[in-house]
Write a structure and sequence with these properties.
single chain; alpha/beta; Cobalt-precorrin-4 Transmethylase, domain 1; Methyltransferase, Cobalt-precorrin-4 Transmethylase, Domain 2; three-stranded parallel beta sheet; 11 helices
Length: 267
């Protein structure tokens, strides 16, 4: 599992270059992007495609090659493989057959954004990419809003304005850091209130270009004495009963069976 630069080629590690050069083959999310990077560093290792549409099929081939003694390196388009990118199924398949999987750490948009955000936190929930729309999106946002932790997520340029609006509606007015094009020429890292964030990105086309990492500050845990009924009612408005009960139990400390009976009464 080899981490590769997320923008600046100077961020690649010496160990990553060594592993990529010595591997028998490299499994890449997009062979065109990876070939350009390898060409820059003078590496001619054979490339194979492994992406979200063929991962399960390709995983079987990779396992067979490893069983035959080949060394296979996995890379994503940029950053650390299997973090909101394909790779998890392949890792599970390789481990299931008793083969070794080892990470070659390096660039990560997630950790880069967290380190430069200035948002202090006792814990962070990494949400990846939010569901695009519908009930699944609303449920994910409600679950994030229910927790006390800071939140980190990725977003694409054509959805950034809508996502900022949805985050404000779901989470209320908190600080958010909008990290755009990390390590690239037009990198910007801006801290702003969620209430202003959607208007801010819509005010300038450049602010909606590139790849985004969003880091949102957490909220204090609910004060002792929070009425479980109020919490449960808010969660039931957005989530299925079972999920709402589980989250309400975590937030309030109330017993799950009592909350379940309460939820049935509300329904």
């Amino acid at each position: 599992m080899v981490a590769t630069p997320i923008g600046n080629l100077g961020d690649i590690t010496a160990r990553a270059l060594d592993v990529l050069a010595r591997a028998d083959m490299i499994a890449a999310e997009d062979t065109r992007n990876t070939r350009a990077m390898l060409r820059h560093f003078g590496i001619a290792t054979r490339l194979i495609a492994l992406h979200e549409h063929n991962e399960r099929r390709s995983a079987a081939e990779v396992v067979r090659w490893i069983s035959e003694g080949s060394a296979v390196a996995l890379v994503s388009d940029a950053g650390t493989p299997a973090v909101s990118d394909p790779g998890a199924h392949l890792v599970a398949a390789v481990r299931e057959q008793g083969h070794r999987v080892f990470p070659v750490p390096g660039p990560s948009a997630l950790t880069a954004a967290l380190s430069a955000s200035g948002i202090s936190h006792d814990g962070v929930v990494f949400a990846g990419f939010l569901p695009v729309k519908g009930a699944e999106r609303r449920a994910k946002l409600a679950a994030l809003a229910a927790g006390p932790w800071a939140i980190a997520l990725f977003e694409a340029p054509h959805r950034i304005a809508a996502t900022l609006g949805d985050l404000h509606e779901a989470l209320g007015d908190r600080d958010i850091v909008i990290a755009r094009e990390i390590t690239k020429k037009f990198e910007t890292i801006t801290r702003i209130r969620l209430a202003e964030a959607k208007s801010w990105v819509e005010a300038d086309d450049d602010r909606r270009r590139g790849e985004f990492v969003l880091v949102i500050e957490g909220r204090p845990p609910p004060a002792q004495g929070t009425d479980p009924r109020d919490v449960l009612a808010a969660l039931l408005a957005e989530l299925p009963l079972k999920q709402a009960v589980a989250l309400a139990a975590k937030i309030t400390g109330a017993r799950r069976n009592e909350l379940y009976r309460m939820a049935l009464d509300m329904k």
